[in-house]
From TrEMBL:
It comes from Coprococcus comes. SUPFAM superfamilies: Phosphoglycerate mutase-like (SSF53254). This is Histidine phosphatase family protein. It holds the Pfam family His_Phos_1. The lineage of its organism: Bacteria, Bacillati, Bacillota, Clostridia, Lachnospirales. It comes from the Bacteria. GO terms for cellular component: cytoplasm.
Length: 208
């Protein structure tokens, strides 16, 4: 099975480097490359090694608007399946704020001092967030395998992608290795038989 994990296009909060998790922002259309808005083929989402344009059988999305909007732009008319477990992290008291606004906040400094491992005050525990995302991905893959799907796209969030890639990378690269910019992501293969047997690793990983 061919799978792509793609981060949504930028929102205003992304541009201002804010913690945007549960806030349901829309994408900024001016941040979408013109050739994508015109639905022209391109190397990242279209032609690959001379083959025809890559089109998924369906697109799995976070329930948040920025992901659903991005999916419609990239894959217009494709069936969208919402996976609530793959939504972004709840940043609690930090939600909607950026580094400048949080500087001097003792709760923020405590979180920074923990290396980002402590739970966000009033929000989600980062480790529980990662587990949630991985659980959601596994649930979706079970459904896709049972449905005999062969080409699947996920349009989700940066943290979601990092969580999933860290969990199933055969080389076990750490979480922050998998940071991607808005509109980018990863393409990889999954061997369905191995996956169902419990050998859950991504193969032929490529950045897109």
């Amino acid at each position: 099975m061919e799978v792509r994990l793609i981060r949504h296009f930028a929102t205003e909060g992304n541009l201002e480097k804010r913690y945007i998790g549960v806030t349901d922002e829309e994408i900024k259309t001016e941040c979408v490359p013109e050739y994508i808005l015109k639905k022209e083929e391109n190397r990242r989402y279209g032609k690959k090694n001379g083959r025809a344009k890559w089109e998924p059988e369906l697109v799995i999305v976070s329930p948040l608007r920025r992901c659903r909007q991005t999916a419609e732009i990239l894959f217009p008319g494709a069936e969208q399946v919402v996976c609530d477990k793959m939504r972004e992290c709840d940043f609690g008291l930090f939600e909607g704020k950026n580094y400048q606004e949080l500087t001097g906040n003792p709760k923020y400094q405590s979180w920074i001092d923990s290396g980002g491992t402590k739970a966000f005050p009033g929000g989600e525990d980062p480790m529980e967030f990662r587990k949630r995302c991985v659980c959601g991905f596994e649930e979706m893959m079970e459904k896709m395998i049972k449905g005999k799907r062969k080409k699947i796209a996920f349009v989700v969030h940066g943290g979601t992608i990092m969580s999933v890639m860290e969990a199933f990378d055969p080389e076990k690269k750490e979480f922050y290795h998998w940071q991607v910019k808005n509109g980018k992501g990863f393409h990889f293969q999954i061997e369905e038989e191995k996956w169902q047997q419990g050998n859950r690793q991504f193969e032929e990983i490529e950045e897109i």
